[in-house]
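Box 3.1. Reading complex inputs
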Amino acid sequence: VTIDAERCLGHAVCASLVPEVFVIPAEGEGAVVAAPNVDAAAEPAVRRAVIGCPEQAIVVEES
Amino acid sequence: MGEHEPRYDVDFNRSELILDPFPAYEEIRALGRAVWNEYLKGWMVTGYDDVIATHADPIHFSSADHRSSFFEVPTMINADPPEHTRLRAVAKQAFTKRSVVRMREAVVGVVDELMAADTVADSLRGGTPFDFAAEIAALVPTLVIADILGVSRADRAQFRQWSIDLSLAVDYGLSAEAEARRETGLAAAALVNAYFREEILARRAHPRDDLMTDLVQANEDDQLTTAELGAVCLLLLIAGNDTTNKMLSGMFLLIGQHPDERHRVLEEPALVDSAVEEALRMMALGQATPRRVHGSAPLAGRQFEDGETVWMMKAAANRDPAQFPDPYRFDVGRTPNHHLAFGWGIHLCLGVHLARMELQTTLARLLPQMRDFDVVDFKYEPGFHVRGLERLIVAPTPVPAGV
């Protein structure tokens, strides 16, 4: 999973839903991915973050 | 199950419900996950997860059929993807976290200016009552958005009057009074549309250091027409003004009514941010937001069909006990607090960073001056959809003699 930094505005919807995958650094503009490889347990929450992202900035690549 | 069952017919514009809609919400919640209301001609959804599920599917639960008559062209709030994406893309440049940090100075300036005004300054010193709603809450967002957009000082008073006319008319209500307010609002909207179109044309020729210029420059490949850019400015005025105004008063009402929680914030200023979030959760100004069903989709335990209306009861969802333990308690330290006051998903309030910053700045600067203030009187404005106070009389603790 990656974040399109051009689109992200730092609303932190993703970080509130899946803090183990997405974090909002104190410095900087938006969210960053802490753990790009999502395991099965976290998948439903990540999918919810993908839908919930106001800027549609989360990109998922299936492996 | 009958066609419109379960059912709870309630006119939320009745004054006793504007004063306190929450007992009705709890009765609706007890009846089921989707409850018909003849007055709203739609299904009310009160559960936190169900409101999120509605937000999460903008294709089946569409915003496009509820266009406000204020706008001569579509805006992002009344559009679905891909149109929504195009309309939002230009405006969002102005609302990044970094842009909002730059706006903080304007907000601090406005709040300090209002605190120094005679009426307020005298009250803060002497403890005489003043109307927080009129002297602070109504003015902060208008002056801030005027400063940020780049409205000149000469146009400030006119701009302020338009804001008042517009905010009075933002109401989905069906009453004769709502109809009259809408007329006033429409007249103001036409003038504001014309004003912004002219200002934007002027910025195209002579760029300045303001948001209108930023919008023109963000739109350099002409994704949006001048009329659409003007509509963005009007939307920012409407969406950022009445809401922030009522939220400021609502927050100070809650802080005023809960002395123990107020003391926590006074003693630990780091709690300002979570206190703001908790006030947003409790007030949830936009009580109910409609969506029109396109196609057929399951939600809240029933199958919705084309053309039906779903009302997301956000204030009720913000007190869903399954999501928020002890939901009726005002807890300035509540965490986590993923409330829905700004919506969720692609329509999440674009001004969320600015609104939070205005609320946090006003609370942080004003509360230490007001200290242990009393709420002397308050009155809700008629109109349910952006439920909020039109009057909030407070009496600050006087400064002790010799200070």
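In summary: Chain B has 16 helices and ten strands.
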